[in-house]
Amino acid sequence: MATRIRPSSKRCAVIGGSGFLGRHLVEKLLGKGYTVSVFDIRQSYELPGVTFHQGDLCDKQALLTALQGVSLVFHCASPAPASDDKALFQRVNIQGTQTVLQECHKIYYNKDRLNSIKEMLLVLTSSASVVFEGTDIKDGREDLPYAKKPIDYYTETKIEQEKLVLKACDKENGLLTVAIRPHGIFGPRDPQLVPILVDTARRGKMKFIIGDGSNLVDFTFVDNVVHGHILAAESLRPESPICGKAYHITNDEPVRFWDFMSDILVGLGYAAPRYHLPYTLVYGLSLLLWLLSLLLRPLVAFKPTFTPMRVALAGTHHFYSCSRAKQDMGYKPVVGLKDGIRRTVESYPHLRHGA
Ligand SMILES: NC(=O)C1=CN([C@@H]2O[C@H](COP(=O)(O)OP(=O)(O)OC[C@H]3O[C@@H](n4cnc5c(N)ncnc54)[C@H](OP(=O)(O)O)[C@@H]3O)[C@@H](O)[C@H]2O)C=CC1
Ligand SMILES: CC(C)=CCC[C@@H](C)[C@H]1CC[C@H]2C3=C(CC[C@]12C)[C@@]1(C)CCC(=O)C[C@@H]1CC3
Fold it and tell me: Which residue of 197, 198, 320 sits with most ligand 2 atoms within 8 Å of its CB, as the best mutation to test the pocket?
């Protein structure tokens, strides 16, 4: 029989703790004196103070073992948006999240209540994209309705996931939940934004600006996202206004999408995009390509660079207000955008032009 571990307010679990955001979160938690149980499908590093539990989110028993002795859970596991695999997103983001909620309940209602846990706290990493339908959002607040026609399976299942977690918040039954909605996370070790950008540049496809280039977007340095998660966890009490609510966490410095891309590219020694293409033309083409890839999927597998979601992200305004987080949990970004870009560029020497 597994040994029971007594819970402590400085013990927590990070589901998805091997990933980009998860690992930054784990490192910050360790620095704040927490011990951390990481649950992930893969183990990508070792650190003192961290116990790894390798397993699939949908495996109840494996998850329960990882959550033993823990009364604070961060859930930031998800398949990468680029996978575009409907069944995988449904299984991990929806079924997997249901499993997390069930196991949190189980820990709380542990028969002999040996754990004497006052409350189980669950902080979900959602996404600001849950309200994004491919059209402009300027200073969007959390009361915007969920996207009625989500632009991809990732967004569709992130919406369901967030709804499940917020609905499960139940002060009487000791489960307190909150959802953090970051947008455009970037920083050292990010496997998506900078690598995709550099790969596109190396293939000579970063010459064009989609639209007139004036669209404002939130890019959020990873430390600020981590800060938002920890503030939420430490504010989560039955009497707190944050219970059962969603919070935008951004750098609070909207920037032109194409200026941000150019700063990263130029910082790494590549040319900035210069020529303009009409947004509707590129979006239409991306839709055609996506349909074609669906039709041909049984015969050939090809992944278009220009997916409708990517084109929409690159050509529309999408920036969000984080005044709710400022008001309810005293959130303020800890790293400015310029500094974040510099630290990010410096962390990718291997992706520099000519390296
Ligand atoms: N990056 C961004 O810009 C944004 C991210 N988010 C959200 O933040 C969270 C973290 O994202 P990010 O750090 O970028 O993503 P990563 O892919 O780097 O991290 C997610 C981690 O979860 C793991 N994982 C995937 N499936 C399972 C599973 N079935 N069981 C256990 N672990 C699993 C992944 O493993 P593997 O790599 O092997 O799949 C990976 O280690 C996600 O929920 C994402 O939706 C929200 C807004 C913006
Ligand atoms: C703000 C936000 C939600 C960013 C998300 C990160 C990624 C979705 C972007 C990171 C690199 C971007 C990128 C493009 C689209 C959006 C990203 C994948 C393009 C494919 C857009 C069209 C181009 O001209 C090339 C771009 C390469 C980089």
Answer: 197
Ligand 1: atom nearest CA of 220 is 3
CA of 239 to the centre of ligand 1 (A): 31
Distance CA 247, CA 249 (A): 6
Q: Cα dihedral angle (77, 82, 88, 91), rounded to 10 degrees?
A: 40
Take atom 40 of ligand 1 and give the residue whose Cα is closest: 19
pLDDT tens, residue by residue, 157-204? 999 999 999 999 999 888 999 999 999 999 999 999 999 999 999 999
Task: Mark 319-333 as b/e (b = at least 16 C-beta within 10 Å).
Answer: bbbbebbeebbebeb
Q: Catalytic annotation on 154? A: yes
Q: Is-contact 258 209, C-beta < 8 A?
A: yes
Domains of the chain by residue range? 11-184+219-251+319-334
In the numeric block, which tokens belong to residue 196? Answer: 């995709």
Ligand that lies nearest to the alpha carbon of residue 126, given by its number in the listed order: 1
Domain 11-184+219-251+319-334 sits in CATH 3.40.50.10170? no
User: Does ipTM surpass 0.95 in this model?
Assistant: no
**Amino acid of residue 161:** Q
Nearest CA-CA partner of 303 in 200, 189, 187: 200
Our answer on whether the CB atom of 130 is closer than 6 Å to any ligand 2 atom is no
Tokens representing 228?
């938002």
CB 197 within 8 A of CB 351: no
